[in-house]
Amino acid sequence: MSESIVEKIKKQSNHLRGTLKESLLDEHTGAIRESDRALIKFHGMYMQDDRDRREERAEKKLERLYSYMIRLRLPGGLLTAQQWIALHEVTNAYTTGTIKITTRQTIQLHGILKHHIKPTIKNFDTVKLDSIAACGDVNRNVIAGAHPRYSPIHEEVFAYAGNISRMLLPKTNAYYEIWLDKEKITPELEKDELYEDRYFPRKFKVGIAIPPYNDVDVFTNDVALIAIIEKNKLTGFNIAAGGGMGMTHGNASTYPRLASMLGFVKKDDLLETVYAIATVQRDFGNREDRKLARLKYTIDKLGVEGFRKETEKRSGIIFSEGKKYVFTKRQDEYSWHQNHEGLFYYTAFVETGRVYDGENVQFKKAFYEVAKTGKAQFRFTCNQNIIISDILPENKNEIENILQKFGVIAITESASPVRRNAIACVALNTCPLALAESQRYLPALISKIELILKKYQLENEELSVRMTGCPNGCGRSVAAEIGFVGTALGKYNMHIGADAIGKRLNKLYKENLEEPAILDELDVLLKDFSTNRNENEPFGDYVLRKQIV
Ligand code: HEM
Ligand code: SF4
């Protein structure tokens, strides 16, 4: 096999410029040129079209309704009040109006027309926000344990997320030239020792967990870092590598995989080690078949031992044996909490991560009002929720009143555990790869699952249910106790048996189920579970013990 087309596009792109400038100027179409569609991802955007309107547009002989999704680079998932205000205003001016909190601790905006991309990016730039490398074959948004209450070392770990993100940024000025009309700099300054002219073979994701919480689902990342705290101090990180959720229906050589433990390094050695891992993937990753190009396949090719040795050779840093740590929880810490410095935090439940103004709850109004007080910040979680954060005790009432007024507290306090733990990817109507609905459907399915849980007195069960519209795994379905993976409109493969804390994947249970069959299966399984489980046994562990999968 020869190099994939995307490899050629990257190399010929003149450091990610391609013909994006020309594509933007073409007023005859809302689309951009074919090769630029691969490149625009490195700038944090996807070209999409409204799939709900394809038929109607085709009948009228109109081109598809093309628009762009933009994803911010937000290491550790923090926005200041001022940045939230800018986000809110950009959302209203140029997008569908909904802010989507993603499962990687950042936000996506959809429906941006081609001529609105530059104003969008310019507005973000005024508050020091960018979308560089949020998509594409580069290091993506670095995620980190979200809740500052977790630990006094939260701030220190959060800084590592930013440092890793900066270290692995592509060294090109293309973003500034194309979107912000900045001048071209001299090519010598663009010499990119990490990415050269070929970037990574595929996306690359880094996550940092702060035990005992695994809210980042750390082992689903290419590079999984677990902060090791000894005598209340951060001493270093356990490093695992080779996680990834994606698979392709009908292609047995593709598979989801959790990261394998490489060992422990001292915190001062972290950046060099991560850099070395990145270069091993750059040099050994598959550049012929993109379906087999993620780090997980590289590791399985070299073997964990071989991969560890190659990394050590490049970094000069030897892994020591992984240190002991415990994960107890993967879901968010909802409602009010106070951290070691006395600051208050409110974790709000945002169903499927969609921040909008609805009938029962007005998230956008609430968060805009909060931002305008300047008395809180905003942190995203990998469970698609938001933490209104860093609130001084004297300001807590004011913030609470706003959250109350717009229904945020009521929705958070009244949602059932299964609803609060559920995750859905975007899927239709924007995702070009979606085979089935996900975020538009999961809330209704959860209502039906709630009824079954109630029937068997399981309504307080912290069950994790996740759905994706295709097997790419953006909503991490295969790491859920109950995972649904879309196969066609209205049809899902059902996977069960992952653990509750993110250390074991689930297994395929039944294929191509429609809703009635899904509910029948769940009825049988949950009834059985309610009568035969051991005390406090999670559902995922139960179905494995009973050899149901
Ligand atoms: C072959 C693999 C994959 C492909 C081709 C892919 C492609 C896409 C596309 C096209 C979107 C945009 C959907 C939209 O906004 O309309 C998206 C969203 C997203 N993807 Fe992926 N993806 C893949 C795997 C993954 C995996 C394994 C993860 C993480 C576990 C992930 C994380 C995300 C996140 C966080 C979003 C944002 C929306 C959300 O929260 O669902 N992706 N992906
Ligand atoms: S899992 Fe599939 S359908 Fe869902 S957002 Fe990712 S690519 Fe699209």
Tell me what you see in this structure.
The longest helix has 18 residues, at 515-532. By secondary structure, the protein is an alpha+beta fold. Helix 5 (81-94) packs across helix 12 (363-373), helix 9 (270-284) packs across helix 11 (304-315) and helix 16 runs parallel beside helix 17 (515-532). It has helices at residues 5-11, 20-25, 34-39, 54-59, 81-94, 117-126, 154-167, 174-180, 270-284, 295-302, 304-315, 363-373, 396-405, 408-414, 417-421, 442-455, 515-532, 539-545; strands at residues 45-49, 66-71, 78-79, 99-101, 107-112, 143-144, 206-209, 223-230, 233-241, 260-266, 335-338, 344-348, 354-355, 377-380, 386-391, 423-424, 465-468, 482-488, 491-496, 507-513. A hairpin with a 2-residue loop joins strand 18 (482-488) and strand 19 (491-496). It folds into 3 domains: 45-131 and 331-415, Sulfite Reductase Hemoprotein,Domain 2 (Sulfite Reductase Hemoprotein, domain 2); 136-329, Sulfite Reductase Hemoprotein, domain 1 (2-Layer Sandwich); 419-545, Sulfite Reductase Hemoprotein, domain 1, CATH 3.30.413.10. The chain binds protoporphyrin IX containing FE and iron/sulfur cluster. Protoporphyrin IX containing FE binds next to strand 1.
